[in-house]
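Take the subject:
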Amino acid sequence: MTDAQDTAADSSLRITGGTPPDDAGSSVTGASALAGAPIPAPVPLLEPREGIPPVIADAAGLAEVVAAFAAGSGPVAVDAERASGYRYGQRAYLVQLRRQGAGTALIDPVGCPDLSSLGEALSGTEWVLHAATQDLPCLREIGMLPTRLFDTELAGRLAGFPRVGLGAMVENVLGFVLEKGHSAVDWSTRPLPEPWLRYAALDVELLVDLRDALEKELDRQGKLEWALEEFAAIASAPPAEPRKDPWRRTSGMHKVRRRRQLGVVRELWETRDRIAQRRDVSPGKVLSDAAIVEAALAVPSNVHALAALNGFGHRMGRRQLEQWQTAIDRVKALPESELPQPGQQLTGPPPPRAWSDKDPAAAARLSAARAGVTALAERLDMPQENLISPDTVRRLCWEPPVVVSGESVSAVLRGLGAREWQIAQVTPVLVTALSADGA
């Protein structure tokens, strides 16, 4: 019996007023897929079926979890909670796992900062995650990295689900309602309140059941091999490179035009980042992006002028104001040659809005390619960005192969990182688009 079926059978775990499909997990759309059949009310999940497990925060407890999960069977559901908006960086503050034969475990990475022993025990096991690319970086930091995975969010996209959040997927696929009220709380809080732990345990309660149902649906649609290629690409991807000039992503940067103003943004952003890292708080709690842009546009001459700007008001002490003004004064003293240039240096084609002026033929190719990819994505019932990366299409259309053919276009797509299933699907469409103007 699956977790979903077992949970459905235990009336103490749900509110009376509806039952899930008889074979929970065997039909992706449940009873709603049966033409004319009544749609049963979704069943709220109130408690993990074995109760809320204790939080593991020491070496002895971790060793027990490692042994239990190594002895378990089947895929392992994995999730991680971060403190985005509260703490600096994206580290994990709680890790949740569930596996048949082992039950559910909640691990505190503050007390157990090295989970490499658990990662090694699960080597070769398929990990089931929802939106894997969000959690893998913080899991990698604590020694956990899958060799195989199944991403239920990505599976939902490829299967054509319009809503792919975990709550929506569990409800639409399995007929259960997950309480999502604690998704944005400060997970660095210690001790963690019981309602948060209940929420965290429930997040992995039915994840393997969701995986099994989605696997069946993808297979029915003829998309399972495509999904497996995508999952393998995620599992084997190297860590992301540090972003160049991250200060340029400050919200409201489009208002800042002059080089010295850009220098103020850069200096305030970097000063804020150092303070946030030292204090282990979210940078936005130190100084808002809006305040940085305000200061950059005004380039205040002194602390008094700075205090008059939005974001630097009466709540900010004199010492803090002097700190920001000192940063601005450093920029004022820079020679022109050391100020940043407007705009980021492009490593690919220019923005599409400029193509008509720069290269009308490329603009026509891009228009035809976009239309073809959109139509194909609709026929395949998936988002076009999952069918092929828009950036890949732009790069191909800006610099197409000298001789346009299936082989040459496939080679370019492969060089740009497209998966084989994507290449097989989109190459005919893109060959037609590139050939339309005689390219």
